[in-house]
Design brief:
The structure is a homodimer.
Chain A lengths: L4 E6 L29 H10 L7 E6 L3 H7 L8 E4 L5 H15 L4 E6 L3 E2 L2 H17 L3 E6 L10 E4 L11 E7 L4 H10 L2 E11 H11 L1 H10 L8 H11 L5 H13 E5 L4 E2 L4 H7 L8 E2 L2 E5 L5 E4 L5 E5 L4 E5 L3 E6 L6 H12 L5
Parallel strand pairs in A: 1-2, 1-4, 2-3, 6-10, 12-14, 13-15, 14-16
Antiparallel strand pairs in A: 4-9, 5-11, 6-9, 7-8, 7-9, 8-10, 16-17
Helix pairs in contact in A: 3-6, 3-7, 3-9, 6-7
């Protein structure tokens, strides 16, 4: 076990592109989106339990998901669940967790990860993570895990890295630029150039490094948490955090730290594992078992003249008959039925907004 | 009120083309297929109540639907519900009802009708029916109500009638031929010739006429009911009918009587009312309100980029989102979800057979 290593699992998202299965009362990371028998957050947690001490794995989530976390991760102690009163993107989340870790181990090495990724080849993942943690313990660097792109996806951030010197073959590279969601033409250029990686949203650093970075690039945020840090791990923590978050802006770690610090100590490890952020039903469809007609279904589903559909039923006993349906996502949660052409899935976020407006919060 | 006139409402069908809404435990005629607030059989019953004495309206159905009839038609007395132990098509059904009516009024005039038709212009319908009943009381004729065809539909029987003499303009015509479900080419020829009508399945006759016809053309059937008629309207009726039906063949009134008798005393009244047998979801779609995108929906339905769909939800509170779906039938009964391209709807009968085989009787 790596006693000096910590993991921050960010689990506060809503996953609205997975509506109607993912709801603000029960978001994506708590669902068994892939049909493996385990929720996304459970799979994430177990992946780290193998080599990170349990008490070093922190879950940061919205306070309304506290019971979901405790139910799905019964091993987790209350002191390992960090409850946000409101979502303020990744920078406050990582700052909160970093100050918490500082109380316990000011020299910790830290991996920040999402709670709803698919990671295949967990051994390779572990090697990449350990490489990053080892480097972060030696050098004042922030290391991202970058995913070799396979298509000109416009939904990801792209990381450009410095080509190594001729003959050099380092396991990681200095970062040149970050580019948030490019347009299709630019994404194609990135893909073809060969020196871009997708931003996985996973970061590795030592605590002194990230705290220095916050102090340098996000001094307001740093000061907020520095101001309340004595109340952490006391009865006043919730009130202190409520106060702190009320003063935090909505900032991502990418724009707040990485993009500003990029010319100095930001590195990227090209991932050797297979990864998907499972950002859409379409990406889930790509990663689950399909029958010979390309249908990925769960439950009692009978198909006629139907191919390439993804069917997800909350009630596994319900009988579904598809006849003449091709390339659709069908999700039945009991109270909502979604039938969406796969190519229209980017519209689901808009659907959620409309549904909220017309039918109210209970439906989203 | 027309005290000499009787109506036989045949309500024993399964309506499997309306699966999954229509189930053998709760078939089509007991559903509010059109979304009017009334079931088909309720609409049928009320249509006749206006001018036929209530006690002259008989419901013939399978015995398992007795409670459904009593619930939906609380006015009906037990003596007006004729329970079949097994479905044997229309000839035994009409024979049973005819022998029952003979006990009460041997000179009755009788209209036979289905329980699951759509009839618009009920006043015109009444006029056609009364014309038929009046004629049947005067002449030994069997009169069918024929529907002027609007398309070369291959799902109906066609009735060819004798053109009247030049200058003649009779309200009904002698029938020349009956043709069951023709192929498309023949249906087109029929439609273009102008002297064919669709067989509505509604017949009018006097009791002496139909009993003579049974005796002449279906003597076995006649003898079966003649043999048990003394036990009708006694405690032994159910046993007698069980016995009678066990000896009846599966015969329709069309092939058993009409086609054999056609050269003699069979007439047809071209209907002045609008009629549909609502034989498929597609025909329902044609007859219900559609929005400006051609979607005919009930309940909370939100559509994007979707046109010409029929949506029927058992749970009116359930939210349905369609995105990129065109020309489909969507039926959600709670335990079954059907998503079927409209043009494939003829396949629903086959679906039902498959589902019965794979999942059992509970599902069909």
């Amino acid at each position: 076990m790596r006693k000096n290593d910590f993991v921050i699992i960010m689990a506060g998202g809503i996953g609205s592109r997975f509506w109607p299965m993912s709801r603000s009362s029960y978001p994506k990371q708590f669902h068994d989106i892939l049909g493996t028998g385990k929720s996304m957050i459970r799979m994430t947690y177990e992946r780290f339990l193998e080599y990170i001490p349990r008490e070093n794995i922190l879950i940061v989530t919205h306070r309304r998901y506290r019971d979901l976390v405790k139910t799905q991760l019964p091993e987790v102690q209350d002191s390992e669940i960090l409850l946000e009163p409101v979502g303020r993107n990744t920078a406050p989340c990582i700052a909160y967790a970093s100050f918490k870790i500082r109380q316990r181990n000011p020299q910790a090495n830290v991996l920040v990860a999402g709670s709803d990724y698919l990671i295949l080849n967990t051994e390779k993942f572990r090697k990449d993570v350990e490489l990053g943690l080892d480097e972060a313990s030696k050098e004042p660097v922030i290391i991202t895990l970058g995913i070799p792109p396979t298509r000109p996806d416009t939904g990801y951030g792209y990381i450009q890295f410095h080509e190594p010197e001729e003959g050099d073959n380092p396991p990681y590279f200095q970062v040149k630029t970050f580019t948030e969601k490019p347009d299709l033409e630019m994404a194609k250029t990135f893909l073809n150039s060969g020196d871009f990686l997708w931003n996985s949203g996973m970061f590795i650093f030592s605590l002194p490094t990230i705290l220095s970075a916050f102090e340098a690039y996000m001094p307001d945020l740093y000061d907020i948490f520095e101001g309340i840090h004595r109340r952490l791990d006391t009865d006043e923590e919730a009130a202190a955090i409520e106060d702190a978050y009320s003063r935090c802006r909505n900032d991502s770690i990418d724009t707040g730290v990485m993009e500003k610090a990029q010319s100095e100590n930001i590195y990227v490890i090209p991932a050797s594992f297979d990864w998907s952020d499972l950002g859409t039903w379409g990406s889930v469809y790509e990663h689950v078992d399909q029958d010979y007609l390309g249908n990925a279904v769960s439950g009692n589903v009978v198909v006629y003249d139907s191919t390439s559909n993804l069917v997800r039923m909350a009630d596994q006993g319900k009988l579904v008959v598809l006849n003449g349906l091709n390339d659709f996502i069908v999700v039945d949660t009991g109270d909502v039925l979604l039938i969406c052409k796969k190519e229209n899935e980017q519209g689901i976020k808009g659907v959620v907004a409309d549904v909220r407006k017309r039918f109210g919060e209970d439906w989203v």
